[in-house]
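Practice problem 4.
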């Protein structure tokens, strides 16, 4: 393992050296960095030209400028000595502080969008593979191809109009006529009938139940003013904790082993008790407090699940930990929703922003600040997620179908294993091998492609650094962007190779 990592790092070093050389010379050859000063006049013109020439080393030949940039980069690799700056921009300011300010916004956007797209895409892809050639499969295939072909800038414009401007107008006075509520219920019933599938009788039953439940739930939300003061509350959290426990148990173990079910319900009780006990502690916490409470809840649920699980101790403990973690996320979401009324009032009743990565001069507590980040993430995250979701869905479906036709899957079924065990423990693990490769490329690709998203949504991240640097022929910010994207691409590809050995024992790293 260590030899493999060392070899890959050595190869990656030479790849990055060649790539940075090419990128640097492309940037400095793309225009004149002094072009905007050609028509300037006044006594300060010569001083401005001299200052920019000194900051960008324009009095040196191109190759020497590249080696000077490498020298600045070397200061960041060697601890101590000269301060790390990653070079200077055209104004003479160090690039590293600018990168530190921008990288948080970009990684927040890319990480959230990638995780959501990966989870949804893999789950939907597996379901479409299991239900091949059904109405659900054809519908997801059609939607995936449509989403994959959508230009990102056009999709972003649609989201601004219909998911921000129109929705903000509706949130000022959230009301629906009864006919609209009925139509929403009918649409939800059709979707659930297609998702669940089965014979005609089963689809009609699912349609009726889903349509009625959706219409009643929407009516209750409107009547109780939930869209004005959202939140789960104690009752909603109790119901959600029980639902999460049943859902994870059904997915990971089934209901035949009662001790696992009892352990899951115990974990739900632990999570709900953690919710009640954490109310005063989460009034205005910090990230350390939140993570400590989450870790404590997961640890207690893991121990309680293992104790109740009996002969299935290990499996019950793992499922209990997953349930507790999911309930912890619900608690975090509930506290964010409770901060919505105050933040909406500060935004003038239009809480969903269309531009920017955060509200300027927002002086709020922990929950207001993080809810503001989350609301700014909505539009760009949806735009990136929808397109990445299409890719993950198609690749997962194809990979899962290929694995399900292998001999060892038929052997597992012939041994009498349940279909859930065959799919989760045998088929899914091997189907993830090509998805791992796709995920490695996709993260680096989304990180580099965030330039378009950040430009459309006015996001102050690394994409803005790159665009501004290219427009002004300023190589230092562009190279800082390229270093982060290139390093991410190399690192995630190496992690994907390492993951192969864990997913498939036939693969070695020697």
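Answer key:
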């Amino acid at each position: 393992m260590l030899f493999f990592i060392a070899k890959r790092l050595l190869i990656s070093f030479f790849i990055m050296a060649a790539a940075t050389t090419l990128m640097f010379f492309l940037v400095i050859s793309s225009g004149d960095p002094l072009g905007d000063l050609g028509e300037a006049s006044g006594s300060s013109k010569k001083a401005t030209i001299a200052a920019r020439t000194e900051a960008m080393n324009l009095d040196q030949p191109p190759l020497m400028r590249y080696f000077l940039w490498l020298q600045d980069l070397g200061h960041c690799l060697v601890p101590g000595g000269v301060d790390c700056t990653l070079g200077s921009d055209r104004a003479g300011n160090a690039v590293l502080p600018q990168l530190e300010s921008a990288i948080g916004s970009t990684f927040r956007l890319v990480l959230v969008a990638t995780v959501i797209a990966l989870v949804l895409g893999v789950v939907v892809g597996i379901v479409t593979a299991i239900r091949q050639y059904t109405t659900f499969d054809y519908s997801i295939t059609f939607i995936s191809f449509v989403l994959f072909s959508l230009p990102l800038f056009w999709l972003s414009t649609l989201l601004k109009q219909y998911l921000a401007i129109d929705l903000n107008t509706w949130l000022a006075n959230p009301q629906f006529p009864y006919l609209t509520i009925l139509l929403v219920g009918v649409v939800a019933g059709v979707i659930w009938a297609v998702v669940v599938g089965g014979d005609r009788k089963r689809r009609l039953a699912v349609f009726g139940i889903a349509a009625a439940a959706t219409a009643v739930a929407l009516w209750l939300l409107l009547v109780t003013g939930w869209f004005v003061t959202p939140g789960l509350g104690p009752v909603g959290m109790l119901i959600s904790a029980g639902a999460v426990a049943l859902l994870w148990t059904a997915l990971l173990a089934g209901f035949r082993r009662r001790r696992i079910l009892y352990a899951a319900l115990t974990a739900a009780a632990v999570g709900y008790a953690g919710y009640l006990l954490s109310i005063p502690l989460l009034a205005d916490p910090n990230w350390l407090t939140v993570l400590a409470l989450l870790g404590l809840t997961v640890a207690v649920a893991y121990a309680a699940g293992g104790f109740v699980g009996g002969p299935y101790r290990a499996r019950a403990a793992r499922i209990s930990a997953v349930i507790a973690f999911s309930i912890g996320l619900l608690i975090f979401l509930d506290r964010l929703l409770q901060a919505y009324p105050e933040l909406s009032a500060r935004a003038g009743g239009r809480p969903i922003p269309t531009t920017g990565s955060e509200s300027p001069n927002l002086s709020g507590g922990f929950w207001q600040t993080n809810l503001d980040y989350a609301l700014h993430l909505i539009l760009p995250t949806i735009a990136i997620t929808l397109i990445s979701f299409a890719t993950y869905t198609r690749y997962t479906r194809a990979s899962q179908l290929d694995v399900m036709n292998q001999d060892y899957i038929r052997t597992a079924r012939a041994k009498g294993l349940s279909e859930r065990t065959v799919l989760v423990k045998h088929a899914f693990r091997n189907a993830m091998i090509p998805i791992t490769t796709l995920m490695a490329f996709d993260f680096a690709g989304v990180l580099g492609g965030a330039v378009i998203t950040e430009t459309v949504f006015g996001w102050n991240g690394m994409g803005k650094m790159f665009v501004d640097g290219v427009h002004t022929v300023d190589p230092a910010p562009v190279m800082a962007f390229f270093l982060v994207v290139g390093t991410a691409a190399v690192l995630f590809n190496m992690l994907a190779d390492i993951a192969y050995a864990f997913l498939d024992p036939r693969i070695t790293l020697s």
